[in-house]
Design brief:
The chain is an alpha+beta fold and 231 residues long. It has a single domain, classed as NADH Oxidase, CATH 3.40.109. It has a four-stranded antiparallel sheet with strand order 1-2-4-3. It is globular, with a radius of gyration of 21 Å. The two termini are 32 Å apart. The structure holds flavin mononucleotide. The site of flavin mononucleotide has 11 residues, from helix 5.
Length: 231
Amino acid sequence: MTASTPPPIDPSLHQNPELFPDFFRHVGQVRAIRRLRPDPVPGEMIEQILEAGVQAPSGQNQQPWKFLVLQDKPSKRWFADHYGAAMENRFGLSRDPSKRSTKKIGRQLRAMFYQIDHLHEAPLILLVCGERDWPFKVPESERVGLAPPNYGAIYPCVQNILLACRALGLGAALTTMHQVFDEALSAHFSIPQEYGVVVAIPIGFPLGRLGPVTREPAKDHTFFNRWGAQE
Ligand SMILES: Cc1cc2nc3c(=O)[nH]c(=O)nc-3n(C[C@H](O)[C@H](O)[C@H](O)COP(=O)(O)O)c2cc1C
């Protein structure tokens, strides 16, 4: 081996189990938790969650996120009413329990019904907002309406938030149905035009169990060198 040849890689020397104990087990334990206890979430935990969020990467490290934490009753009630109405219009999930289909419904749908009935009782609803910007190279002449919020930067931040909630034993569910009442939402909470709400995450201690996700293996979604080639 010459002086310029790096030594062969020993993967174990690159791993840091102290920093990431059991990461690969925990990453599959972050499912959407829609049934939450109304008990308050301590302020220090909210800070920890948001600090985890802002560790995310963003283009040129611009950190284009802002957080709006809905905690008071009128704010949560306003959001919950609009969210429920949007779910009803979009998916036919009636907010009136007496008008709901008596047909057997799946687990996720039952959880969604629970969420729309109890959203106003969640201890907090976190709105994660992104600064609006045109994607790279959209010419000014082709711009119509407002620029989209910077989704690419907000989603890594959101995933950190979901992981932090799980690490603290809190339940959380990523939701995007506010897009249906986006304008009213921004007007109601005085969100300036430069920002758009990307996700709304109700957060609280879970009523049921936190648990594993159900996903297809990555290999079923992966190709090598050419689309469709699995090896
Ligand atoms: C981009 C995106 C939008 C979502 N929007 C909603 C939503 O509006 N309401 C909701 O109840 N769940 C929403 N979810 C949560 C998904 O329904 C949930 O993650 C998925 O069904 C898998 O369930 P699990 O995470 O519990 O395994 C959203 C998830 C993503 C990634």
